[in-house]
Design brief:
α1 packs across α12 and α6 runs parallel beside α7. The protein is α/β, with parallel strands linked by helices and 305 residues long. It is 42% helix and 14% strand. The strands form two sheets. Strands 7-6-5-8-9 form a five-stranded parallel beta sheet. A four-stranded parallel beta sheet has the order 2-1-3-4, sandwiched between helices.
């Protein structure tokens, strides 16, 4: 399987290809028609086994703006919900559509679609990775600090979850420093953490203030993600002290920005004064899901792909 034909993980793309996608995303933000309509006559199948706001709307609107159409496929409504093997689904959809985006639980499901199908597959989110979110985050950071982020520091505070794992992949590819503050027992994936540490400077702390010191980007996520609702009380105890408030932002660089992939719980992982304050770029970040994903769609499914 040629992994560059897909977008399964940021780790699969070379730094030059990631920058190409981000440059195109910037052009599309400035001019939505900059790429033309490279998806004319093409269809994206969107498979959802997890609920979504930003992923569904941004992919559906983005496909339309590029000239194509998007099909929403709930797992409850198609045969994978009744046990059809993903390998069969991949082969069948490859005869009907020109690309697949899937938002699901297991990374292995995304990999299986790419392995057995003959069309590009885009990872819209798994429990392991969230690469589309990080492309939007990188676009947001570049708008503040320029296209070369290699001299910058990103601070991740909270759960070592799928978003944190994709931040690690991005740091390894683009060379910026990443500091993570996670409670013991909630560290990122160990293999991803080790690989990133071999490629760039990665520091793992237990104290959020240490991670935030001098950071240019401070970012976090909810303490209990989808599928972890039963752990909410336990996680609230574990993450006590990992709240991003004014005191944490004061530790960061004077021009630091705050990011959050949303949805957010004000008063838990982030203070309202931070997410709604002058350092927040959360709404630009959310908008950039549209532009960065349009760039990925154009590169994978466009006429020149």
């Amino acid at each position: 399987m040629d992994r560059t034909r897909h977008f399964l993980s940021i780790a699969d793309w070379a730094p030059e290809r990631l920058r190409e996608a981000l440059d195109l995303a910037d052009r599309l933000k400035a001019d939505p028609g900059a790429a033309g309509r490279p998806l004319t006559g093409k269809t994206l199948a969107m498979i959802f086994t997890k609920s979504s706001t930003r992923t569904r709307v941004s992919f559906e609107v983005g496909t339309h703006q590029l000239g194509g159409q998007a099909l929403f496929l709930s797992a409850r409504d198609i045969q994978i919900g009744r046990g059809e093997p993903l390998s069969d689904t991949a082969r069948v959809l490859s005869r009907f559509v020109h690309g697949i985006m899937i938002r699901t639980f297991a990374q292995a499901d995304v990999e299986a679609l790419a392995e057995h199908g003959s069309i590009p597959v885009i990872n819209g989110l798994t429990d392991l990775l969230h690469p589309c979110q990080i492309m939007a985050d990188l676009q947001t950071a570049r708008a503040e600090f320029g296209p070369d982020l290699s001299g910058r520091t990103v601070a991740w505070i909270g759960d070592g979850n799928n978003v944190a794992n994709s931040w690690l992949n991005a740091a390894a590819k683009l060379g910026f420093r990443l500091r993570l503050a996670c409670p013991e027992g909630y560290d990122p994936d160990p293999a991803i953490l080790a690989a990133a540490g071999r490629a760039t400077q990665v520091d793992l702390f237990r104290m959020p203030a240490e991670a935030a010191e001098g950071a240019h980007v401070v970012t976090t996520d909810v303490w209990a993600s989808m599928g972890q609702e039963e752990e909410a009380a336990e996680r609230a105890r574990a993450f006590d002290g990992y709240h991003v408030g004014a005191e944490i932002m004061a530790r960061a660089a004077d021009d630091a920005i705050f990011l959050h992939c949303l949805p957010a719980h004000r008063g838990e992982e982030v203070a309202a004064e931070v997410i709604d304050g002058p350092a927040s770029r959360v709404w630009d970040e959310a908008e950039n899901r549209l532009h960065s994903q349009k760039a990925i769609l154009a590169m994978l499914m466009g006429a020149a792909s």
